[in-house]
Design goal:
Blueprint (H helix, E strand, L loop, with lengths): L17 E6 L8 E7 L2 E7 L12 H4 L1 H5 L9 E3 L8 E3 L2 H18 L4 E5 L5 H11 L4 E2 L7 H8 L10 E3 L6 E5 L7 H13 L3 E5 L12 E3 L6 H15 L4 H7 L5 E4 L18 E4 L54 E4 L13 E2 L5 E4 H9 L6 H8 L3 H17 L2 E3 L3 E2 L5 E2 L2 E3 L2 E5 L1 H4 L4 H14 L9 E3 L64 H10 L7 E5 L11 H9 L11 E6 L11 E4 L8 E3 L11 E7 L17 H11 L17 H7 L29 H7 L3 E5 L12 H10 L15 H10 L9 H10 L10 H5 L9 E6 L6 H4 L14 E3 L1 H6 L7 E5 L4 E8 L7 E5 L16 H4 L33 E6 L28 H12 L1
Helix pairs in contact: 4-16, 5-13, 7-10, 7-11, 7-13, 10-11, 20-21
Subcellular location: Cell envelope
Family: Belongs to the prokaryotic molybdopterin-containing oxidoreductase family.
Protein name: Molybdopterin oxidoreductase family protein
Length: 1006
């Protein structure tokens, strides 16, 4: 008898016929992915284990990229509006006609006045191209989405540390022993953070999450601090207060790496008040206590007492204590002063013994105090004690004191010593790297407030006082950061003879003369960025463009061009009125915003309001450059950049579909318009498409979008001639390039000679001078002086008090504007309302994804059970939520993971019916909702945008509301808008992948 045949079992089935590596686009993480193809279709997406960003880890979003590519909402052809704007009545046209129309609209603008084009981009990840294109066009009216996302984070860090949280730095995952997460949701940098948190858990570090809501990372934290929204800065100041009281401050670090010892002029009625005392060459000065107190030149300028404290720093009461009010008004000098032994010296001199407290008389008779003196005076004030801030923050005073003790213990009692020799920028050799293993990471939760800029600076001050910036165990810079403070590139504001702006439209203001204003001090940009109302608006103000374009403030524009910016729905505040502005007409019957060109890959709500729609590809069909000139993906030990490349041919994906990558469309439009950087001398196009631009464009000689495999033979990195084979080299390497920082250069980057030389070689820095971290910002003080009447450039009268109040050179705290201005005498709006970004979705893109929708198809308003009981609301009741601006009706759901004075929801799940080609009864449109309807785009007083007064950051999270049971609930969310005629999806059950299974079964049977 024959033995039965063994069944044929494939123990290692291949996911597809072939695999290609590229970069994910499902969030801002930009992980490496392997895309498996079968029969010309995407079969499977997995993480790339060789990629330095995610090391093979992939989240639900990344895996669901299949459904992003095959989304029914994909646009298929260029569209030209034929009906009324907002009705989604279009006719399909060919690309030749679309480009002819766009050129015919843009060419007269470029000839007449380039500023009549407002070019604003969303989460496109290609700002190195789009900003440069705007510069070539000559318009100052360009911005990216950061103004309503994270500019407080970026500016707060770049004006303090020369780097920042977010995408500019990371915790030292290998060595940190104490991590504080401030306002961190799960939508950005999620896979690297998950990997890092796993490392911290493995070696026993404590993780503390500070957030009104406990989700995601906070859910695995060792401790959750349920703070009231908008009070993070106050909490930070209370921690600083306790550290100062206990003397648990790293003065050695402060004097070596910060401006703690720099002398600040005290001249209350003079134009130099609050500026740094400088020598004839402009070098900042300190007070050298004299040879008798001077340490050896190779030693630390100040000694730290055992346990990390500091000595001899107590203020002398006889010299007068300066008080500050709640808005940080500069203290007035005491009349009782005495001269001290010593003399002024350059603050960066080696071998001096600088004073950090006391008042000193300079040779010219002016009085001055060190920066640290001002810090001690301000934050030792009883108004910042734990008992004083506890109720406002919603954190017990004993908890604040304990957290301060834990920070100090981790920093000073458990310091890290790495046996790595290094040399500082002054040539002093060090045998080891000493670090404070306290790390911090922060995100939108602290940024999206009208006090967010100073809150970000407060966190950086806390880090610096602990000596916990770019030391082992602390926050670490990621190349190309740190940058000089402030970064040297200023915003462009003048046009050259060929019409090109003298600099990129976005940059960093150093003083009032850098503002983009007219001779009378009025804004020149359509969004009012870089004006006296929002001087340090480093990312522009995308949330201001539609209102101002509609109002003609400061002038009428001709064309609004936008890319991937859903400004008629979830990317706007005051959504109903924004929709009305997009469709409003003047007395002659013409639209107040005459023309709108919109590019997107999907039928989002904004498509309906465009006059010309340019259909983009999906991320699997195009080239992209994840550039060090843009939003870097480096880690703290290496510079990294990457590409996307087409793993699928857009022309073969769907019958009749004809789409083009928007970046390539821009390249062609620029050539058609004759823009100098996009044309050869004979007028012919300089670049074939975006891929050609990536390889051949040079921002400066030898510097292009990609740093890897430069030079004609690909043998150079960072700097070198264009390499015609560069993109293929990236493809062959898995889509990325990584260059490690030398081991001796990986910490103290702001003052490490090895790093500074490496960064100069790579083109990140112009020179090798150390970067002094700024506890006290002279840039801010220059604006305050201008508001007080000093200097050639002064603000118009209506802005003077605002600038004088909020441009405090030291971090300050003030009540968020909405809570302060709503005249809430009877506590009519007792609750804060915020959104969280879910780990499983990325803004509106994710919530149209067929697989991700299975996780959540609608959102609820979550509230603490005690809050429900207080207001007579039961679990899953329909409720009215009212702000000073309006009312929405939503369904409530109890959740214990929120502090009782806050309600929250998932962001961007609510959809307008008819958009994204969802079914007509899709829960996202029927029961999903946006808090955006409750958020005004202007303050309750109506005088400014609902934004931070320093940077213009949109203040989404200042929202205050009240809640009550709905009288006659319709079992659907309100408001509802007329459905958009953008097409519906097939309502039959999704069976993607069934064809693969059938084919495989057929092959096995054969």
């Amino acid at each position: 008898m024959r033995a039965p045949a063994e069944p044929l079992i494939d123990y290692s089935p291949s996911p597809g016929d072939e695999v290609k590596t590229t970069t994910c686009y499902m969030c801002a993480c930009r992980c490496g992915i392997k895309v498996w193809l079968a029969d010309g279709k995407v079969r499977y997406i997995q993480g790339n284990p060789a990629h330095p960003v995610n090391k093979g880890v992939l989240c639900a979003k990344g895996s669901a990229g299949i459904m992003q590519h095959y989304s029914p909402a994909r646009l298929g052809k260029p569209l030209l509006r034929v009906g009324e704007r907002g009705k989604a009545e279009f006719r399909e046209i060919e690309w030749a006609e679309a480009l002819d129309i766009a050129t015919s609209w843009l060419a007269p603008i470029r000839e007449r006045n380039p500023d009549e084009l407002a070019f604003f981009t969303g989460r496109d990840q290609s700002q190195a191209l789009t900003g440069w294109w705007a510069q070539q066009f000559g318009t100052i009216n360009y911005a990216a989405h950061g103004g309503f996302c994270s500019v407080n984070m970026a500016a707060g860090g770049l004006y303090t540390l020369g780097g920042s949280f977010w995408e500019f730095g990371e915790p030292d995952w290998e060595h940190a022993k104490y991590l504080m997460l401030w306002g961190v949701a799960e939508d950005h940098d999620s896979n690297p953070i998950k990997l890092g948190l796993g490392k911290l858990k493995a070696h026993g570090a404590k993780i503390v999450a500070v957030n009104p809501v406990r989700t995601g990372y906070g859910a695995i934290a060792d401790e959750w601090i349920g703070i009231r929204p908008g009070t993070d800065g106050l909490f930070a100041f209370a921690l600083i207060h306790e550290l100062l009281k206990a003397g648990r401050i790293d003065l050695d670090y402060l004097v070596r790496y910060t401006n703690a010892h720099w002398l600040v002029v005290q001249n209350p009625h003079g134009g130099d008040d609050g500026l740094f005392a400088r020598d004839a060459e402009g070098h900042p000065l300190c007070w050298d206590r004299g040879a008798s107190a001077r340490s050896d030149a190779s030693a630390a300028p100040l000694s730290r007492s055992e346990g990390g404290g500091w000595e001899g720093v107590a203020l002398d009461p006889a010299e007068g204590n300066r008080k500050t009010n709640s808005k940080g008004t500069p203290p007035q000098p005491s009349p009782s002063l005495r001269e001290r032994e010593g003399a002024e010296a350059r603050a960066d001199a080696i071998g001096v013994s600088p004073a950090v407290v006391g008042e000193y008389v300079l040779p010219d008779g002016r009085r001055a105090v060190p920066v640290f003196h001002l810090i001690v005076e301000r934050y030792l004030d009883p108004q910042y004690s734990p008992d004083a801030v506890s109720e406002r923050c919603g954190i017990p005073a004993d908890t604040i004191r304990r957290i301060a003790r834990e920070l100090a213990e981790a920093a000073f009692d458990h310091e890290i010593r790495l046996p790595v020799q290094w040399t500082d920028a002054h040539g002093r050799a060090h045998e080891e790297m000493i670090g404070r293993p306290v790390a911090m990471h922060a995100m939108r939760g602290i940024s999206a407030h009208s006090n967010g800029f100073h809150t970000c600076r407060a966190l950086h001050l806390l880090q610096l006082l602990l000596g916990a910036v770019d030391t082992p165990g602390s926050f670490r810079y990621q190349p190309p950061f740190p940058k000089p403070i402030a970064p040297p590139n200023r915003p462009g504001k003048a046009r050259q003879a060929n019409g090109v702006l003298d600099a990129a439209p976005l940059g960093f203001v150093h003083a009032p003369e850098d503002l983009v204003v007219d001779a009378d001090g009025n804004p020149r940009r359509i969004d009012h960025a870089y004006s006296w109302a929002y001087p340090l608006a480093a990312h522009g103000m995308m949330h201001g463009v539609i209102r101002n374009a509609w109002a003609g403030d400061p002038y009428r524009i001709d064309t609004l061009m936008m890319f991937m910016a859903n400004m008629s729905w979830n990317s706007s505040m005051n959504t109903r009125e924004t929709i009305a502005m997009l469709t409003d007409k003047d007395e002659a019957g013409d639209y107040k915003i005459p023309r709108i060109i919109y590019a997107d890959a999907y039928a989002s709500e904004m498509v309906a309001y465009a006059d010309l729609v340019l259909p983009d590809t999906t991320y699997l069909e195009r080239f992209d450059a994840i550039s060090l000139l843009d939003r870097p993906i480096s880690d703290a030990d290496a510079a990294i950049d990457a590409i996307r490349h087409p793993v699928l041919d857009a022309a073969t994906q769907s019958e009749g579909r004809d789409v083009r990558g928007f970046q390539s469309v821009l390249i062609e439009l620029g050539a058609r318009l004759g823009l100098p950087g996009l044309c050869n001398e004979d007028g012919s196009p300089k670049y074939r498409d975006y891929a050609d631009y990536i390889q051949r464009h040079e921002r400066a000689p030898g510097v292009g979008l990609l740093a890897g495999w430069r030079g004609e033979d690909g043998s150079l990195e960072a700097k070198g001639a264009p390499n015609p084979d560069q993109l293929q080299r990236y493809i062959d390497n898995g889509g990325f390039w990584r260059s490690e920082i030398p081991e001796e250069a990986r910490y103290y980057k702001m003052a490490n000679r090895g790093y500074l030389q490496w960064a100069q070689k790579m083109g990140f820095l112009a020179g090798t001078a150390p970067i002094t971290l700024q506890l006290y910002s002279e840039t801010l003080q220059k604006f305050r002086l201008a508001a007080l009447g000093f200097g050639a450039q002064q603000p118009p009268a209506q802005h003077r008090e605002r600038v004088a109040t909020y441009f405090d050179p030291l971090p300050m705290w003030y009540e968020p504007f909405e809570g302060e201005q709503i005249e809430d005498v009877d506590n009519r709006f007792p609750l804060s309302a915020i959104t969280q970004r879910p780990m499983f979705m990325y803004h509106a893109w994710g919530s149209q994804n067929a697989w991700l929708r299975q996780i959540a198809t609608r959102n609820y308003l979550y509230l603490h059970p005690a809050t429900g009981a207080k207001y007579g609301i039961a679990d899953e009741d329909w409720i009215d939520v009212t702000s000073h601006h309006g009312t929405i009706t939503v369904q409530a759901k109890f959740a214990g993971n929120v502090q009782p004075d806050t309600v929250w929801t998932w962001n961007a799940i609510g959809k307008r019916r008819g958009a994204w080609r969802l079914g007509k009864d899709a829960p996202e449109g029927e029961k999903g909702f946006l808090l955006n309807h409750l958020i005004s785009d202007i303050t309750p007083r109506g005088d400014y945008f609902n934004a931070d007064p320093v940077t213009g950051q949109a203040a989404w999270f200042d929202l205050r509301v009240r809640i009550a049971r709905a009288d006659d609930p319709m079992q659907q969310s309100e408001p509802q808008f007329a459905p958009l005629a953008l097409g519906e999806a097939d309502n039959r059950p999704l069976r993607y992948g069934a064809g693969f299974r059938a084919q495989r079964k057929k092959e096995q049977q054969a």
